[in-house]
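Thread: Modeling a multi-component assembly for a lab meeting

Hi all, long-time lurker, first post. My supervisor asked me to bring a structural picture of a complex we are working on to next week's group meeting, and I have zero experience with this. I have the sequence lines for every component (223 residues in total). Could someone generate the structure of the whole assembly? Inputs are pasted exactly as I received them:
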Amino acid sequence: KAGVTQTPRYLIKTRGQQVTLSCSPISGHRSVSWYQQTPGQGLQFLFEYFSETQRNKGNFPGRFSGRQFSNSRSEMNVSTLELGDSALYLCASSSEVPPHEQYFGPGTRLTVT
Amino acid sequence: GEDVEQSLFLSVREGDSSVINCTYTDSSSTYLYWYKQEPGAGLQLLTYIFSNMDMKQDQRLTVLLNKKDKHLSLRIADTQTGDSAIYFCAARGGYQKVTFGTGTKLQVIP
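Re: Modeling a multi-component assembly
Sure thing. I ran the full set together rather than chain by chain. Output:
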């Protein structure tokens, strides 16, 4: 089985721009979660999607949004980028069968200048 | 909400055992996980334990769970230099979001 894939792997954007990141889950997984990882804040939960619906949400401003398609692929969007949005964005997929363990992609490294 | 805490750093000699500790706050956490992250990579699932278990062994890894104290530990036997990484514990209750700890950086000295 192919693992979780994320595109692009690296991205450089300018403050004020917007960005869209993509995640393809493991085949058969319908849950996709997004995390932001920074040296200062660690691993912060953004949101989780299941069957095209947002099931859980973290404490991030509305500039951060996501969606999930019928094939379970997910995208996250960050509008009006700030310098503090520079981070590694990780996507994870999981099955609905306990223990619901998450499998992570390699991440997208976003740098905002 | 759930809070998961870990110590930030652990240094051990190659061949010794490593013990990484974690505490969590939500007693309804049903699933507890350990992940490993190497530089520049995503997180790799190492093992997990259900809240109704006390211990789980998987080759060189032993997970101990003290549900009363909400304390989880990961023991790595015969630690190797390839075990150097950041280790995260995480907790989840049912279909709730997964909460990750701050991560413990394990340094293995040859």
